[in-house]
Design brief:
Elements (H helix, E strand, L loop, with lengths): L10 E6 L4 H12 L2 E7 L3 H10 L5 E5 L7 H11 L4 E6 L15 H29 L2 E6 L12 H20 L5 E8 L6 H4 L6 H4 L5 H14 L3 E4 L2 H12 L2 H12 L8
Parallel strand pairs: 1-2, 1-4, 2-3, 4-5, 5-6, 6-7
Helix pairs in contact: 1-8, 3-4, 4-5
Length: 271
């Protein structure tokens, strides 16, 4: 991989899944703090997001890339190299959920897509980012994990498992890089007011109908944790923090039942 040429003191932040939700708000807060932005999504909405982000005065490049595909990560890094500046930070945020009964309701192809995006693309992007940042001598990596990583997730079985992977992976890579100037931070939001639950077919669940956190607040807390070099931050409401703490002490069988009640479709609650 080619070395970047240094162009002054401009800082580049790359944010995946940036067309809406937490990813868009992360891009916004990076831009507000003087970063040039490269934003990525599998949706054409990323170009509308680019226009809106530019209104804050940030320099923004946008690319439509499906990171669930095997060569998606490499394609994104070609765009990063084309920027001709140091990669200061990358927010590996793109992800998707699948709600429903694993054995009787969900589709395998949806769950394979989830694993390709939430797990495999995270590994691919991190491999490329860490190699580049080691060459540069510094950098910051933010993973969007979830409080779902702290417990078994009935009715989101594959999603919760994917976030448990991301959380473990982030902390392990952080430890390996502890002798470098590369820091790794895990952002762990709870239910957030995005289109996640609708896309995951979870509108008819307690968590889908519940009050949710502001994605701008979640993104701000994630950015601040990344900039301070924290290993993780449980973002959003106090309830999220309590839930994450409780998950460390409560047996998995109990936390699984709690998640079951929150994520089970209400229409099937008595069936």
């Amino acid at each position: 991989m080619k070395k970047h040429k240094s162009h002054g003191k401009r800082k580049l932040a790359v944010i995946t899944g940036a067309s809406c939700g937490i990813g868009f708000e992360l891009a916004k807060v990076f831009g507000e703090h003087g970063f040039d932005l490269l934003v990525c999504s599998s949706s054409d909405r990323i170009f509308d997001a680019k226009k809106e982000l530019e209104e804050s005065g940030a320099k923004v490049e946008a690319c439509r890339i499906d990171l669930s595909l095997p060569h998606g990560a490499e394609e994104l890094f070609k765009h990063i190299e084309a920027q001709g500046t140091k990669l200061s930070a990358i927010a590996i945020n793109a992800g998707v959920g699948v709600g429903g009964d694993f054995a009787r309701q969900t589709k395998l192809e949806d769950e394979v897509h989830l694993i390709n995006l939430n797990v495999l693309s995270t590994v691919r992007l991190t491999k490329l980012a860490t190699k580049l940042m080691l060459d540069q001598g510094e950098g910051k990596i933010l993973f969007t994990s979830s409080i779902a990583a702290t417990m078994p997730g009935p009715y989101e079985a594959v999603y919760a498992a994917s976030k448990a992977f991301v959380q473990s992976f982030a902390l392990a890579v952080r430890n390996e890089l502890s002798d470098t100037k590369i820091t790794v931070t895990s952002l762990m939001p709870g239910p957030t007011d995005t289109d996640f639950f609708h896309r995951a077919n979870m509108d008819d669940t307690r968590v889908g109908r519940s009050d949710k956190d502001d994605p701008a607040k979640v993104a701000k807390e994630g950015f601040e944790a990344l900039m301070s070099g924290s290993d993780h931050v449980v973002a959003g409401s106090l309830m999220n923090k309590v839930q994450a703490m409780a998950a460390k002490m409560i047996p998995d069988v109990i936390s699984a039942n709690f998640h079951r009640q929150m994520a089970k479709p209400q229409s099937s609650i008595h069936h």
